[in-house]
């Protein structure tokens, strides 16, 4: 196994660096697979969190079905052999040529809409109609973003009826983004039920009107993991479950020790008299995401752990500049600032895995037992 | 002029895209140069905002003196011929080999410290001492981050006295990060005076003790632009002035029409009944920076303008998901949501230019009069 010869001790990495604990990731993926199997639906993992071919191979082995958030992701995956791709951000007429170019390469790329303007513009645009693009209507089951309300039969009918020419009706999609606001297991279960019930109502309306719907797609990591019934659903989408993060831990979806991603940083200034330490990981390494700010426990810019990943009591990143992170204790903490000195290293768990990962060009994949890096997995970005 | 033949209409760009208005940038740079000339100091522009060789050539023509926030920036600039570089984040012993490698290539790379632990560790580390690295002591003139208090004569003496071996004392540096919290011109002037006075006091203490200080370096865009006296200072550092942003406009350092950076986005869902529009630029394109949240006018994730850069009345990005931006009106606005439809494009001014630019791989440099892209300038990132 050549990687054993290439292993770099974690302590020898240039900092800041993005560490990925493969054991935790594999455990998180297994948990999702077990849950999905128990629900009797297909998993269409969302690659927007990982954006890395090696990680996507773990999520969707054998070039399985995937969800993307950009056409760039679709193009990267198409080049790697993936053929069943859903682009889960509302399509615009300007993007149709890139979609059709991928379909001509043999990729069954599907798109979504929540209005009848797109279909009308595509009809007027003179696009090739020989291979209509499967188009899912986006349903808004919790009012948080885009989509058609599931009971709006008139609008559903108008949109479904307007899809034609270079597009063809392929099914329905919803995303329970509101699940991120849940604060209890009961609320998570209710969010999952609302998501399923909403899309089922919309599907019934359209099927009664004679429309054929092959794909009924739902998802968000919290709502899938706490779903108790996916009757009528064909597939579930989720992405952040592979890494998890402090926002997910704050909701109760995982524990901090499930979080597979951390940022390695080095102390550059120790100020025990001011109750703080400065490290060389600021918002450029952590992102500006403050997703836990609205949760019961605000984790600042991240929870600080030692090199083995064990959290220091009450130590978080309380402020961040571009390349400086200020570490300090939670308000009213009785703990002491750990005795760390310039040159010492720490690991910081992120609020939001998608945002923190996107700040880095690659994952340093760790062998935690050996304290070493076994692989470097490059990420892709852009649009 | 070949660029005239390659010009792409702005409306034909794939979205989201990062637009850079060259005319505004040049005007902003000229303003800073005029100010610096009136103060009689040298400008050492900070490249952390632009991270792009073509833009740095505008900031520091002829491979002039520059400031960097990462060693990666120093390495990129060294390869492009820059020789006078200051790395303005506290150095750690682990980074000494990369610094020395650059110095061996003929780069006069300088580092900073705010403690005596680094010098002791470098002494113990057995590094080559044949070309000592010029080392500036960081002074904390406003308590906001790293640095030694300017009146702490004992600590200043200990640090200065401890610098030796592979390091040599090169001067002092401070950064008035507190200037970002100013809310009036008077406060900005006071911040600038405090920054200069603090570093002057520290310099007097060390010179009285017999230390030689060649470089006295201060800076932040607000404090430099509102400084009235830089007596005793040799150089000023600033970075965000080249682009400006809504945080700077909120402080009163610039007007929104000075902001050279914007994100081009396309409407993907129009929901006038809910008072909102959804565009294909979310936090991945804007960043999660909410720097205006603590200012008198909260700009959400950005101020929304038409294709020509004219702001729509009270329209801001009120929420952002990874690839979705939700546009809506400011609280209590009497304005109407503009009549925009799916496929229409808007431009969004960022809260924080450094953070938004870092989300993109390149700048689309515009010719605003022609509504076209004249150049694509790549950015570099990483550490």
TrEMBL record, chains A, B:
Record keywords, A-Z: Isomerase, Lyase
Family: Belongs to the DSD1 family.
Gene3D superfamilies attached to this UniProt entry: Alanine racemase, D-serine dehydratase-like domain
Native species: Sphingomonas lycopersici
SUPFAM superfamilies: PLP-binding barrel
GO biological process, alphabetically ordered: D-serine catabolic process
GO molecular function terms listed in the Swiss-Prot or TrEMBL record: alanine racemase activity; D-serine ammonia-lyase activity
Signal peptide positions (record): none
Protein name, entry field: Alanine racemase
The D-serine dehydratase-like domain, residue ranges: 260-367
